[in-house]
Amino acid sequence: LESKRSLRSFENALNSLENGGGSYEAAYTNTMERIKCQMPDQRETALKALMWTAFCRRPLKALELQHALATEPDATEFDSGNITPIDDIVSACAGLLTVSQGTSVVTLVHYTTQEFLERAATRWFSDAHADILRTCITYMSY
């Protein structure tokens, strides 16, 4: 999967893995381990972006995701200097995240990615819904 450079080739590879008796589970686990080995800022960006994309109630636009990731828990005002470029966010996610060119909607690359992240939530996202709630409350209080 790491060698795939287009969305279509990545999706085709994932579809072929589905018939491999759990092979895609190993591929996703491997990708998440690679994310875990990134520099701390990249790792945190990737894990938060994947958490928001997998567990948010609706698809987010790129700017919404950027603002969610830039929101600091104890801040009293929003600091636009914390906004990470969307290309950096996507890159940190090691091929698991994509942004629609036409609508700027951020999605996981394949439905199996969603399934994997939901199954592995306790390992990678200790309290996703609470983290999302805290961020939303903080953002609304600015």
TrEMBL record:
This is GPI inositol-deacylase winged helix domain-containing protein. It comes from the Eukaryota. InterPro entries: GPIID_WHD. PANTHER family: AMELOGENIN, NACHT DOMAIN-CONTAINING PROTEIN. Residues 41-118 form the GPI inositol-deacylase winged helix domain.
